[in-house]
Amino acid sequence: MPLLEIEDLRTYFSTDAGTVRAVDGVSFEVEEGETVGIVGESGCGKTVTSLSIMGLVPDPPGRVMTGSSIRLRGRELVGLGKNEIRRIRGNEIAIVFQEPLTSLNPVFTVGNQIHEALVLHRKLGRSDARRVAIELLKEVGIPEPDQRFSEYPHQLSGGMQQRVMIAMALSCEPDLLIADEPTTALDVTIQAQILELLADLKDRRGMAVLLITHDLGVIAEVCNRVLVMYAGQIVESGTVEEIFLRPQHPYTEGLLTSLPRISAAGARLRTIHGAVPDPASWPEGCRFASRCSHAWDRCMATMPLLLQSDGEGSGHSARCWLQDLPLSRKDQKGTRAPP
User: Fold this and answer.
1) CB neighbourhood size of 322 (10 A)
2) Which H or E run contains 78?
3) CA 97 to CA 174: how far, in whole Å?
4) What is the pTM of this model?
5) Which DSSP state fits 89?
6) Angle, CA 13 vertex, CA 12 and CA 17 arms, to 5°
7) What is the pLDDT along the chain (339 residues), one digit of tens a residue?
8) Residue 133 dihedral angles phi and psi, to the nearest 5°
């Protein structure tokens, strides 16, 4: 049984412009001890997916729609009461947000904030909670943890603040850690240190990680499987090797070709033309069709399914009608042409 099972997740928001279908039919699984990456541009639904899993979607204006399913070790989370979901949040699933300084309370010391989580969730006494909090600060690589315990968030660097957030997330020993853009706004050296820390903690603690990012380099560094999101849907799913070496969806291909390359120093970067359609009025067909050079009539008229790209039983799939063409209709370079 997978640790986490998401099936047909739909999270909508009521706005003045109409109903925004931010996450619209997302399904995936996370196995025990696995690192799964969700990648996509800003606004594609990555963060809303993580908030839905955590039960943190503000209602109103948002809500997880009837028929959506989020199961943790087979237990349905959609529809649980606030007290029940609060017991699961932190103890079994924890999250690290992308902006640590906005997530940490500026008027309390970092030690106090970790200490509070340990007292509330693990029911530790104050002295035991302090000892465990200092051990956690040490585990996430913060020097002089005894001193840092008594410091305020503004006294720490951005990298240190993110390590504190990771320590807080780990305080209740969760089975699944959701890391939402954990390296945003950090310089590349600190990014590498945070990613190495997450990988090391995952291995030592045996927990699963759901890593949300727009950075393909981060995905390549730490993930086992990748989910590519676009316009509220998963458009491609596969292993890191499959996604990077044999991308099957035109959007994924566009993301990869837009990456700067040392061999093309000075050359103009390639871009994906056009814009994401309005989430309050998604098109009937493929949501990428208006930006896709391969689009044909079927793409415009009918929403494509997630189709397996490497034969029956393969875990590599893409939401693209071009996957439905026989191999004879695809050229030797893998750039697929419509009929």
Assistant:
1) 25
2) none
3) 16
4) 0.89
5) B
6) 120
7) 899 999 999 999 999 989 999 999 999 999 999 999 999 988 899 999 999 999 999 988 999 999 999 999 999 999 898 889 988 988 899 999 888 878 899 999 999 999 888 888 888 898 999 999 999 999 999 999 999 999 999 999 988 999 999 999 988 889 999 999 888 777 888 888 888 899 998 998 899 999 999 888 888 888 999 999 999 999 999 999 999 999 999 999 999 988 877 666 667 778 888 899 999 999 999 999 999 988 989 999 999 999 887 655 568 999 999 888 765 444 433 444 455
8) -60, -40
State CA 206 to chain mean position distance.
19
Bridging pattern class, strands 225-230 and 233-239: antiparallel
Give the rounded distance of the alpha carbon of 300 from its chain centre. 28
Cα torsion for 192, 198, 201, 202, to the nearest 10°? -130
User: Tokens at residue 294, please?
Assistant: 């391969």
> Nearest 5 degrees, angle CA 313-CA 32-CA 122?
160
